[in-house]
Design brief:
The protein is mostly helical. It has 3 domains: 21-105, Cytochrome c-like domain (Cytochrome Bc1 Complex, Chain D, domain 2), CATH 1.10.760.10; 114-188, Cytochrome c-like domain (Cytochrome Bc1 Complex, Chain D, domain 2); 195-270, Cytochrome Bc1 Complex, Chain D, domain 2 (Orthogonal Bundle). It is 51% helix and 0% strand. The chain contains 14 helices and no strands. Helix 5 packs across helix 6 (95-105) and helix 9 (151-160) crosses helix 10. The protein is elongated and about 70 Å long.
Length: 273
Amino acid sequence: MRIKLWIGVAAALFMSPLVASAADNLDGKALYDASCASCHGATGEVSKLGKTLKPFPARNLRAIAEHVSRDEFRRIITYGVNGTAMTPKKYSLDALEIEAVIDYIKTFSYTPNIANGKKRFGAVCIKCHGSDGRAQTGMGAKNLVYSKQNFDEIMHTMRYGRPGTLMTSKRHQLNNKDLSDVANYVYSLRYMSNSSNGKKLFASNCTTCHATPRAIKLIGNAAATRVVADLDDRLLDLRIRHGRHVNRAGKHIEKLTSDEVQDLIVYIRNNTK
């Protein structure tokens, strides 16, 4: 019995490098051509067949390859997408072959069309986020100019929405090229705050009441005794430019631009850590 056990262990040790070698040597392009190209096209562009699929055409993989995680590609390829023509591939590809296909898809690249992104943003996003992305529409949307999401997170939010908010999935309103173009346009709106300018603004607008940023308690409840920075930028903006604070600080506070307020906020954040 012990001899058989040792034989089994030895066999496993000898086989492990062979399995790893087999995984390294899998031809991802050939596997992609055999399993994916008929719908998604040989280069990741949608094929003629893919464009005719119902209820939704196949997706352009080239446009999103760099920005969709391996985990998500693995899930989609393995289990398919319910309600579409994308069927599970776990019955035709094993786990190592799926990884090889993902490796090949990840070689695709796409040059975004910012002009198209701006156009499609105007058609799909402007109602909530406003023409300038600052979301001053009364819809409660996020201000995209000061968003802290990275590019991949922007893309994911657009594709799947944000549960519990009015931000719904846009993947059936926008094809993958449009998604990538809009995400690039949104990212181009981003304002890089100037902490040095914020310091000047603090000196000219805030020091009468707040000697330093550390003297400000960034908490939602002014009566609280705890010192916890739980105000997000939008709430801090409201506190600066609206309500009782304006009466205390002076009406000139209301005239600060969005970018000036963001500079001020960044300076305060950087000096209350």
